[in-house]
Amino acid sequence: MAQVSGAHFVITLLTSPRRLPALVCLAGEIDMEADPALSGVVARLSATAPTEVVVDLAEVTFASSTLLNFLARAHLALAADSTLVVCRPGESTLRLLRATNMEDIVTLRADLPVPDHWMPSSAARRVALPTVGGVD
Question: Is 119 exposed, middle or buried, given 0-12, 13-18 or 19+ CB atoms closer than 10 A?
Fold first, then answer.
């Protein structure tokens, strides 16, 4: 598990040396301040080559184009057989994702899948949060 934080954001990354799904939990304000840390996440994802990357947005309070840029870079960094899943976006973040056609490169989910190998308390805590309606 790796965690990076700034004045207004926290990024948690759970990966495995095996090609298991990876979990990226974003919290706070995802703006230009978070961009260098998000670039590091993309580099780590590219190096570990997970079969799936799940990005949990349940605790994002503000998202700018930095989030969109991160998702696009993550999509490009993943192997062709990998999938990028965005879970539990708030209403304004969901509008941003849909207005920019991010559904073309990510799968949106209202829930957070929790495979057995994701067992840190932070991931377990996030599962208990209410889901956002309107996500297919």
Answer: exposed
Q: What is the DSSP string of 105-124?
A: TSEEESS----TT---HHHH
Distance CA 136, CA 133 (A): 9
Q: Check: CB of residue 57 under 8 Å from CB of residue 93.
A: yes
Residues 87-104 have pLDDT tens digits of 999 999 999 999 999 999
What is the set of domains in the chain, with CATH numbers? 2-114 (3.30.750.24)
Which pTM was predicted?
A: 0.82
Give the amino acid at 113. P
User: pLDDT tens, 16-42?
Assistant: 777 788 999 999 999 999 999 999 999
Per the DSSP assignment, residues forming a β-bridge with 54 are: 23, 85
